[in-house]
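Tokens in:
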């Protein structure tokens, strides 16, 4: 049997439609996505590459801007004094105490060694066995060093786990309830999981007494180190949109406060255009074209953010006019469809962009809410509204008999809001509310 193959070259015409992101288009998309700080950094980089481009910022703008937390008794004009008030880091605080309290001995060198393994929360992140291998010290020597380290401020520093952290704080607190230390030392798991009947029987203490100890433990900190090295000033947010309200009329405006812009170096351009060199002329034309494109992208960025903001205000009007600040279900797709934009463009326009209102500053993205259906009215109810209802129900519950997730489902169903138990649990956790077994109190009457 014989096979023969023949090959013949043919010309075929095939039409395909492709979407190619040019470098300029990619740059335009990036500019829309940037917040003020990122935009400023981007333009600064471009100004180093393009001699025709100069970055201009308003007088209110500073590259690293902060808002001081002034008290009423402080001199607001003397801002220099506020920078010197910043707390030292936890490591610096511990080192200064060690040098102040302990003389130069081998034991102090072990304390300093252990201090290097204290994390920002105040916990020791090396075991004594590992420390033995690294230092050559005995277990007892390192245990003595750790004991002295744990006596430093703040209370709880040097702990190796949460239980030890709380015990160290209880040990140094004269207001701690009786049995608090021994219960956390011997019955920590049962205490944390609220298996208090076992504790009540073992130590012959009422459930109300265990509740008192639990309330005290809630006042302790699981992260004793975080108070050190915390900046005294929060990064200032420059809003992109300004909302003013007058006689139930909402005015939406772009705000240039803090927003970087660019200016064209016309004098330099005119001077270089007089140079009779084709390479120079070509370079100048390229840089001017780049400037024009960036300027166009900046204008387009501002227009897009403003259009999106106006549509948000149009759909979430009651939030700005009513004291309860209700939010209705809203998706990126709805805004994109109305404004004839791509959904990803709307996403870029709302992420990291802020709106200043007479009652606070909000990220544009926060106005987008998923929703549930009210079976009676057939209207959508936003997830924010459902969360508020859950919060109110739990605030008003009988603390001796807290509402289970299923009971919350039943109560919302009674209001014709169909919601699953899983959704209730998700919303409750988002609100930082513990489950019913963890919310139960034993010092109240049923």
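Residues out:
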């Amino acid at each position: 049997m014989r096979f023969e193959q023949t090959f013949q070259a043919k010309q075929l015409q095939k039409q395909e439609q492709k979407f190619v992101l040019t470098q300029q288009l990619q740059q335009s998309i990036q500019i829309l996505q940037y917040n003020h700080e990122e935009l400023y950094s981007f333009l600064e980089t471009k100004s180093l590459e393009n001699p025709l481009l100069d970055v201009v910022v308003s007088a209110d703008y500073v590259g690293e801007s902060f808002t001081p937390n002034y008290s009423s008794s402080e001199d607001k004009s003397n801002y220099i004094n506020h920078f010197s008030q910043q707390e030292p880091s936890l490591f610096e605080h511990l080192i200064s105490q060690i040098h102040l309290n302990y003389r130069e001995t081998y034991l102090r060198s072990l304390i300093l060694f252990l201090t290097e393994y204290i994390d920002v929360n105040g916990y020791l992140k090396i075991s004594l066995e590992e420390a033995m291998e690294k230092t050559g010290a005995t277990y007892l020597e390192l245990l003595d060093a750790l004991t002295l380290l744990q006596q430093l401020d703040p209370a709880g520093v040097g702990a190796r786990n949460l239980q030890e952290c709380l015990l160290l704080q209880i040990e140094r607190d004269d207001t701690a309830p009786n049995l608090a230390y021994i219960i956390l030392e011997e019955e920590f798991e049962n205490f944390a999981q609220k298996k208090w009947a076992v504790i009540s029987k073992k130590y012959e203490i009422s459930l109300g007494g265990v509740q008192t100890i639990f309330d005290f433990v809630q006042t302790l900190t699981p992260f004793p180190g975080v108070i050190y090295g915390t900046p005294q000033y929060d990064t200032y947010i420059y809003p992109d949109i300004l909302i003013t309200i007058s006689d139930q009329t909402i005015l939406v405006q772009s705000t240039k406060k803090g927003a970087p812009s660019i200016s064209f170096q016309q004098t330099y351009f005119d001077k270089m255009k007089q140079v009779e060199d084709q390479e120079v002329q070509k370079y100048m034309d390229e840089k001017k074209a780049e400037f024009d494109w960036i300027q166009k992208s900046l204008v387009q960025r501002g227009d897009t953010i403003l259009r999106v903001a106006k549509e948000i205000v149009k759909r979430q009007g009651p939030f700005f006019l009513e004291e309860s600040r209700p939010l209705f279900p809203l998706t990126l797709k709805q805004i994109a469809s109305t404004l004839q934009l791509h959904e990803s463009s709307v996403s870029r326009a709302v992420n990291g962009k802020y709106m200043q209102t007479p009652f606070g500053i909000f990220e544009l993205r926060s106005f987008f809410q998923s929703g549930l259906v009210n079976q009676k009215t057939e209207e959508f109810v936003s997830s924010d509204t459902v969360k508020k209802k859950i919060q109110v129900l739990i605030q008003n519950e009988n603390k001796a008999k807290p509402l289970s997730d299923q009971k919350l489902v039943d109560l919302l169903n009674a209001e014709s809001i169909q919601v699953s138990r899983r959704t209730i649990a998700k919303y409750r956790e988002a609100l930082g509310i513990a489950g019913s077994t963890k919310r139960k109190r034993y010092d109240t009457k049923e």
